Amino acid sequence: MLKFLENHRTMIAVLFILILVAAFLFAPAFTQLTSLVMLLVSIGMAVALTSQKHWHSYQQAECTREKMSRNLSLDLLGLLLTMGTAIYAGRLAGDYFGNLAGLWIGLISAFAGGFLAAWAIRSAWGRFVKVAN
């Protein structure tokens, strides 16, 4: 199951975005519930794939149990920080530009703001972890 998720994660992400836009257009009452379910599923997939990667390197004797635990904790903390920042920045950008220029501009700016914030935090976190090692 995890191999399927790993091989098709890009397709799953695109499918989630399309489902969210469809829910937003055709069933606005269910948009919040749909986004919450997809957020929880996405976090679960990310945690499972990250854990599998570190467990695999531990089983191959590439690292000790302590190093595996440390690296897994750093990766999950980085994931939490990245997702939290993306959600916050996307919400701010969407609210601001949605009130200023309309619904579609707000939606597009929310996606762009969340993406840019996640990209910036992820690259900064990667440099921090590299220095910490």
First CA to last CA: what distance? 32 Å
Total domains? 2
Structural class: mainly alpha
Radius of gyration: 17 Å
Taking all residues together, what is the mean pLDDT? 89
How would you describe what is shown here?
Helices cover 90% and strands 0% of the residues. The chain contains 5 helices and no strands. The radius of gyration is 17 Å and the shape is globular. The mean pLDDT is 89.
TL;DR of this structure?
This protein is an all-alpha fold and 133 residues long. The chain has five helices and no strands. α2 runs antiparallel to α3, α3 packs antiparallel against α4 and α4 (65-101) runs antiparallel to α5 (103-132).
Topology:
Elements: H1 2-7, H2 9-26, H3 31-59, H4 65-101, H5 103-132
Helix pairs in contact: 2-3, 3-4, 4-5
